Protein: LLM class flavin-dependent oxidoreductase
Amino acid sequence: MTTARQLHLNAFLMNTGHHEASWRLPESDPHAHVELAHYVHLARIAERGTFDSLFLADGPQLWGNLAQRPAGALEPLTLLTALATATEHIGLIATASTSYNSPYNLARKFASLDIISGGRAGWNIVTTAGAEAARNFGLAGEPAHADRYARAAEFLDVSLKLWDSWEDDAIVADKAAGVWGDDTKIHPPRHQGTYFSVEGALNVPRSPQGYPLLVQAGSSEDGKTFAARYAEAVFTAQQTLADAQAFYTDLKSRTAAAGRDPGHIKVLPGIVPVIGSTEAEARANEQVLEDHIVHEHGLRNLQRLLQLEPGTLELDAQLPADLPPEDAIEGAKSRYTLIVELARRERLTARQLIGRLGGGRGHLTFAGTPEQVADAIEEWFRLGAADGFNIMPAVLPSGLDLFVGHVVPILRARGLLRQEYGPQQTLRERYGLPRPANQHASALV
Amino acid sequence: MTTARQLHLNAFLMNTGHHEASWRLPESDPHAHVELAHYVHLARIAERGTFDSLFLADGPQLWGNLAQRPAGALEPLTLLTALATATEHIGLIATASTSYNSPYNLARKFASLDIISGGRAGWNIVTTAGAEAARNFGLAGEPAHADRYARAAEFLDVSLKLWDSWEDDAIVADKAAGVWGDDTKIHPPRHQGTYFSVEGALNVPRSPQGYPLLVQAGSSEDGKTFAARYAEAVFTAQQTLADAQAFYTDLKSRTAAAGRDPGHIKVLPGIVPVIGSTEAEARANEQVLEDHIVHEHGLRNLQRLLQLEPGTLELDAQLPADLPPEDAIEGAKSRYTLIVELARRERLTARQLIGRLGGGRGHLTFAGTPEQVADAIEEWFRLGAADGFNIMPAVLPSGLDLFVGHVVPILRARGLLRQEYGPQQTLRERYGLPRPANQHASALV
Structure:
């Protein structure tokens, strides 16, 4: 057994892959996004690769432009529950919005998934940018960024109260005496806040992990403040080693400043590996994908991402010089800045930028041999840029299959990744994190 | 193959059984309510008995008095998703509240379960009585009964728009042309109503059934009006054949009056079968359960059900004569009337009433031999009181096991129940109901 610091791997699953044109490849199933068998297959590949977890992104709206790529998806908590029964070890991280859910319902769903999966549930906490989602929930437009984060913080506080509303030993099960549970070990939240009023205890006992692993992915100022306070794992999009190191250092020190152990927040940049047996083959594979992009769709999406009017951008011109600063953006702030900086740094035309974003929507795309991919991962891991990686294959299932078949063995040989899962562990244990104590139990000791 | 009218059977699953003291029996697992394996076991027994469906009740609150019996439960949609992967044929009916959910989220979850289960999802639509639930969702107290039903009707209308927002052939999947979907086959609800505003299309394609089987269980005036308009199956508590016949006739004619085919609403009274190899053994089994009731808990619950102050009732006295009429009750109206009428008709003391309710909370408890149980079922079925039954075993899993092992073969021998499931069918097909057409597709034809 190695005792070296271990890499954490998360498989970010998305229908036929993260490349927007992946569904057009001959190998791809264009109905995969709603096929349980497809996701079971992916989950089992990830489990063969001894990944810590798998993850589903989400937003409660249908993106327009159905022509471009598979749209819609099975609801993540539903799909992950089905995957819980098809897997044994891997963690199951669902995205859910604090802006468009009720704490009581959502806390209960995560507790239920945590129980059903034997302690493998994780929650990627999002505040959900965009007016489209808002208008599906009775709002006229998108709530302000700061409001969304204030609501998210209160949502978390209420959820933590709900998850702690049963002490771990509240069930007595004394058949002879006719006493099933101990009402003194139930602690109703009695929460009266700005966004929520939640009176009663959760109607499900405390789950194996106490509550799901808390994951976060926004990298704006509000996002980082939130992560430092609550998150145990963070997904992030970083294009360069220097940027990733700066983000890593910043987030760890913010976490310490928030009074938490900086070792208790794991930073996982996203990487889109495009693997070939030679570097040239990898680049050719990447080119095949790029050749399948329909640029007119890409232009429309890019304009939406940058909050520009339709018709502002031209395919073969660089971005205009007078784009607004991040402060003026109400959507996904950090994604905005990352894209603008990438375009300016490399002087990309809109067409080139679309090609670069088509693979990873701002995440690092890396085409190379398995050895080169492993080198890149190890470099970031050793040089203080990552505790692990969010693996986002351009094409699924083949990209995940290649990663597990060819990159994972190298990482294992280097002592960076577990050889096998070993004894049954919760998701939090896999990430090397302690089980949270119940706030009521600890207060009474 | 028989062509006789077929009985529909639903298994109402509830931790260790419907009798409140069932958890105290030596055979019972007091942690069963949160054990997936327990529910998988039950679902497989029901599937062996070729039941049409299984069903989970629910309310978004923790009932007080944990001492009395197992409290809390896995969230039904989560649990049923896990059961979908462990079964092949049986329908999966989850209770969910129209008062404490958002149409967009809930419609999506049911569509996801319907896809994952291959068309086996059903929704028991409830409006959720009680102030406890209301206070978990930011309300000061229970909304008025009529308001809850008005909201429920609008919730259904919005949900139907969401489920029809993708035409069945919206996915084109033309790889060569680079066209995945057809935006002209997407129909955003653009709903602006009293309770909800929902702008956009659902973010999941139309499911195998179009939408889940719509089930309803309230028998108040508002409840019956709602059922006649929307429900395809109705669970009901009826104590006598005459009452059941009157309810059945009334609901069918209301359904016809609402412009629907009365054959398209299936009526399933609840029955709590307590089975013995002789009638005496069945009664003895019933007595064992009654002996395990802690009457002080029962008195507290009865007072809450009847909306009386604590201390109003005495265990060995009949109910007071001056109870309020159903109109004055804001909770579960039909349950209230049923209990009061039962107590008055049979001149029961509170203790006796608690004993009678302990088994089925107002549903018909029937102790007898398998032949007697089958006779009772057949009588109600043939005499216009039922299209099938909601089977509510007093003790689980043993009660369901006995029913499937001993009553089901009799029903099959009499040609009342399918011998086997036969070809793959959706839940709606099992109940003999047509797949609903998409409102947009039919408008265009």
